[in-house]
């Protein structure tokens, strides 16, 4: 139950326009945030290429969000429709996510923050550092399927652990705040992982 007198928190969702990111936002809106919280959408841009430009531009008008639901029920943040096709740029998913927040929780404060992966750094480290700098209490990241099984398989084969650690795994283990990875299931529920809970099923 939501309590308007509860202490306001800062909650961060990693936003990258993917199906996993859409699931993470839906979990945040339905189970993690209250109206008096602040929800931060963090977009981590890829490093600049050798020609000085970004590989993808999240503000490109080449694509737009379609507000109709997808077959998996992910709503307006779950699907993008390209106008021109090809590599005309990345959909402006951040606006789509903000609209999703406004529709679900009109009173919720929503902020957008952006960070760039510097050369020699990885996305996971940038997310952890940015969440610490933003003083968030809860970090939510969408998790891809089969990450755990791949990590277990690699460990059994004696491969380098660093090369196998997914962004979600690194964030869970290294974040100063509580970090939860979210995998939305076909039945509408969620599979959650954190430092404290492993493979926790949450029904929608």
Features:
single chain; 204 residues; Rossmann fold; 7-stranded mixed sheet; two-stranded antiparallel sheet; 6 helices; UspA; UspA domain-containing protein; Rossmann-like_a/b/a_fold
In short:
The protein has helices spanning 19-32, 93-104, 123-133, 147-156, 161-164, 167-174, and strands spanning 10-14, 38-45, 63-65, 80-82, 109-116, 138-142, 178-184, 190-193, 200-202.
Low-confidence stretches: 50-91, 147-165
Architecture, according to CATH? 3-Layer(aba) Sandwich
Write down the CATH class: Alpha Beta
Alpha carbon gyration radius: 17 Å
CATH fold type: Rossmann fold
Structural category is alpha/beta
Strand sequence of the main sheet, in spatial order? 5-2-1-6-7-8-9
Number of domains: 1
Number of strands: 9
Mean pLDDT, to the nearest integer, reads 75
How many helices in DSSP terms? 6
Percentage of residues in strands: 15-25%
Region (Disordered): 62-91
Domain UspA: 9-180
Organism: Salvia divinorum (Maria pastora)
Protein name: UspA domain-containing protein
């Amino acid at each position: 139950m939501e309590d308007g007198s509860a202490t306001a928190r800062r909650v961060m969702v990693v936003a990258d326009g993917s199906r996993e990111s859409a699931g993470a936002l839906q979990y945040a809106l339905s189970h993690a945030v209250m109206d008096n919280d602040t929800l931060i959408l963090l977009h981590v841009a890829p490093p600049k290429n050798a020609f000085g430009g970004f590989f993808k531009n999240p503000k490109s008008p080449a694509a737009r969000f379609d507000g109709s639901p997808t077959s998996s029920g992910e709503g307006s943040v779950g699907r993008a429709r390209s106008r021109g096709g090809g590599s005309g740029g990345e959909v402006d998913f951040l606006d789509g996510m903000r609209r999703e927040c406004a529709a679900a929780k009109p009173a919720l404060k929503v902020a957008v923050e952006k960070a760039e992966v510097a050369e020699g750094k990885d996305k996971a480290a940038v997310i952890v550092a940015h969440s610490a700098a933003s003083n968030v209490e809860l970090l939510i990241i969408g998790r891809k399927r089969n990450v755990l099984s791949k990590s277990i398989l690699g460990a059994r084969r004696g491969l380098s652990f660093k090369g196998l650690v997914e962004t979600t795994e690194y964030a869970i283990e290294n974040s100063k705040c509580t970090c939860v990875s979210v995998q939305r299931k076909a039945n509408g529920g969620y599979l959650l992982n954190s430092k404290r809970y492993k493979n926790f099923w949450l029904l929608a």
